[in-house]
Amino acid sequence: MTIQAPYDVHLAWGLEGAERLAADTDIAVVVDVLSFTTTLSVAIDAGMAVYPYRWLDGSAEQYAASVNAKLAVARSTATRDDISLSPASVRDAGNVDRLVLPSPNGSAICHHLAGNVDTVVAASLRNSAAVGRWICARYRPSSHRVTVIAAGELRRDGTRRSAAEDFWGAGAVLSTLADTGWPVIAPAAMESIRAFNNERSYMAGALERCRTGQELSEMGFADDVRIAGELDQSTSVPLLGRGCFVGA
């Protein structure tokens, strides 16, 4: 699929959207607010190198050993001393330099994009402005094309649903691009900017009320939702290179 010529900036959903637009994208921004890219931002803040990987499929443990990294486990099986997809668990971790962080959504998308797109960065509500400013400082409209990929949620049957929190997170990044010199933005991307601006002043409450936020809170992970709502509290820009994310 070829990107429509008039637009420099697009919004895509999930792995399927990433696959369609990868060939025509210079910069891919992956957004998975609850929780991969939020957890990633916390890890980068702590100085970790983070390896994205497909969801725990039996090969993740071997892969972690091959890159000499600690493997994050599923939230549902994590013990007190484990790191999981929970950003709170990463914030509480000590003496971890390298982390393999699988997830069925954002991490799987990043793993797929590695080597297929020149520049892959990850954004959450915590670091959306930093990511937007970083792109604007290094790339130019009309010369480069940006695709912001809202991860969405993978259902148990393998289908994907949209996720309000990722639409807001995408809009947060796109808002910075729009404000700092990237005016040619596709209509769907503009819709996400409007959605973000509508919730901007009430983001913490909006995350608590959204479907994924409610599910995590019911599972006992309300702190993860709270951390995800730390709007622009991080200046980290996770940049994917040689298989892992480091701070740009």
Characterize the structure shown.
The protein has 248 residues and is an alpha/beta fold. It has a domain of 168 residues: ComB-like (putative 2-phosphosulfolactate phosphatase). The protein is built from 11 helices and 11 strands. The strands form 4 sheets. It has a 4-stranded parallel beta sheet, sandwiched between helices. The chain has a 3-stranded parallel beta sheet with strand order 3-5-4, with helices on both faces. A two-stranded antiparallel sheet has the order 8-9. A hairpin with a 2-residue loop joins strand 10 and strand 11. It is globular and about 50 Å long. The two termini are 30 Å apart. It comes from Saxibacter everestensis.
> Averaging pLDDT over every residue, what do you get?
93
List segments where confidence is low: pLDDT < 50 over at least 5 consecutive residues.
none
**What is the approximate shape?**
globular
Instruction: Using the coordinates shown, work out and report the CATH topology of the domain at 9-47 and 106-234.
Output: putative 2-phosphosulfolactate phosphatase
Order of strands across the main sheet: 1-7-2-6
CATH H level, superfamily name of the domain at 9-47 and 106-234:
ComB-like
Q: Can you summarize the main beta sheet?
A: 4 strands, parallel
Q: What's the count of strands?
A: 11
Q: Helices and strands: which structural class?
A: alpha/beta
- The residue fraction in helices comes out at 40-55%
Strand content: 15-25%
The tally of helices reads 11
Q: What Rg is obtained from the alpha carbons, in whole angstroms? A: 17 Å
- Tell me the span between the first and last alpha carbons: 30 Å
Q: Which oligomerization state do the chains in this entry correspond to?
A: single chain
Classified by CATH, the class of the domain at 9-47 and 106-234 is: Alpha Beta
Order of helices and strands: EHEHEHEHEHEHEEEHHHHHEE
Task: Based on the coordinates given, report the CATH architecture of the domain at 9-47 and 106-234.
Answer: Alpha-Beta Complex
